[in-house]
Amino acid sequence: MLAVRNLARRKIRTTLTVLGVAIGIAAVVALIAVARGIREQFNDFFVAGDAHLVLTRAGAADPFISYLPDTLIAALEQTDGVAAAHPFLFAARQIPRQPFFFFYGTTEASPFMQQIRVVEGRGLFDVTNPSRRIVVGRTIAEYLQVRVGEMLQLGRDEFEVVGLFESQTPLMEAGGLLPFEDAQRVAGLEGKKSSALVQLDDVRSVAELEAALERAFPDVAATAPAAFSHTFDEFDLLDQGVTVFTVLAVFVGGIGVMNTMLMSVFERTREIGILRAIGWSRAMILRQVLVEGLIVCIVAGPVGIGLGVAALGVIGSIGELGWVSGDYGGTVFAQALGVAVGMAFIGAIYPALRAIRITSIEALRYE
C-alpha cells in the first residue's frame, strides 16, 4: 500500500508522531475512565443495602458539602410511607502520610453497613468497649501499615482500630467507618449530616415518595441510590472538564500530525508533481494524504488505549491513590478511537489541501 510505504520512508519521524498522538489518547482515556469511575463509585455507595432513597441537600455541589439538620431524621420517620430513616456523614481529614483520609459516620441499623465485610478484627458495633473506635478499609490499612488494636490519630482524637473491612467500592476502602456521633465531632459538624438513607414501607411507591418528600422538605433532594451522583453539580462539571480536555487533546495531537504530514508533502513535491503528470487527479492526491494521516492515528489509537489503561493501573497501585479506579465500558474506547480520527482529520486536512495545489511544472522545478 502506497500510504504505508510513504510513512515508512521516515520511520523515526513517523514513530515519534505515533507516540505523541498515543500519549494524547492515553490521557483522554485515563481522564474519561477516572471521571466515570468516580461517578460510579458514588453511585455504588448505597446500592448494596436496602435503602430505597437517598436524601441530600438540594443544590449541594458534592456530597462532602451536603449538610442536613439532625432533626430531619425524626421528621422523616413521621412521614407516611417511610419505614425508617438513617443518618450518614461524608467527611475527610488529613492524617500523617495521607492528605485525604475519608471517613464515614453511620449507625448500627443503617443499611449502609451491608456495603462492607469485616475481614479482620470486629465490626464497628460488635464491641462492648465504649471507647472511641474505628473500622478501617483494607486498602488504606495496608498503605498506612495499621493493624487491629493500634491507635489512629484523626483530628484531635485517637481512635482504636477494632477491625479491617473490604468493599466493592475502592473509595470506601480508602477510609474508615466511625459511629455517627464520633464522625460529627471529628468533622466539626455537630447537629448535621450529609445525607439520610430512607427505607419505605412499600417499594412500589418509590417514585411517589420521592416526589412527596421533595415537596414536604423543599431543601432536600431525593434520589435512588444508583443515581446518587446525579444529585451533585460537581460530577457534571467534571464531565465538562473532561470534554474540554478531550477537545484540546484533539487539536494538540492534530498539530503534531500536521507537522509530520507537511514535512512529508514538502519532501515529496516532485513525486506529487509526477503523479499529477501521469494522470492522478486532485481527489486522488487528497485521499492519499488523508489516508496517511489516518493510518498514523489509527495505529496510535490502540497504543494510546494501552498506555492509558496501564497508567491508571500504576496510579491505583499507589497507596494514597488506591481508591482511584477507571470505569472503561465500551464507550471509552470508542471515544478514544474518535479522538484518533479527529486528530487525523485536523492534522492531515491542511497538508492535503496544500498537496493538491502543487502543479506538475512547479513540482519538476522543485529541488
Give a written overview of the molecule.
This protein has helices spanning 2-8, 11-43, 71-77, 138-144, 170-173, 180-187, 206-216, 233-267, 269-277, 282-316, 329-356, 360-365; strands at 53-57, 68-69, 82-95, 98-106, 117-121, 133-137, 151-154, 157-166, 175-179, 192-193, 195-200, 220-223. It is an alpha+beta fold. A hairpin with a 2-residue loop joins strand 3 (82-95) and strand 4 (98-106). Helix 1 crosses helix 10.
Keyword list:
12 helices, alpha+beta, about 20% strand, two-stranded antiparallel ribbon, about 375 residues
Low-confidence sequence ranges = none
- How many H/I helices? 12
Radius of gyration, rounded? Answer: 28 Å
Quaternary structure classification:
single chain
Main beta sheet, described?
A: 10 strands, mixed
Cα end-to-end separation: 26 Å
Mean pLDDT: 79
Cα shape: elongated
Strand proportion, as a percent range, falls in: 15-25%
List the helices and strands in order.
Answer: HHEEHEEEEHEEHEHEEHEHHHHH
DSSP E strands, number: 12
Alpha-beta content class = alpha+beta
Residue share in helix: 40-55%
Secondary structure layout:
Layout (H helix, E strand, L loop, with lengths): L1 H7 L2 H33 L9 E5 L10 E2 L1 H7 L4 E14 L2 E9 L10 E5 L11 E5 H7 L6 E4 L2 E10 L3 H4 L1 E5 H8 L4 E2 L1 E6 L5 H11 L3 E4 L9 H35 L1 H9 L4 H35 L12 H28 L3 H6 L2
Parallel strand pairs: 4-9, 6-8
Antiparallel strand pairs: 1-11, 1-12, 2-10, 3-4, 3-11, 5-8, 6-9, 7-8
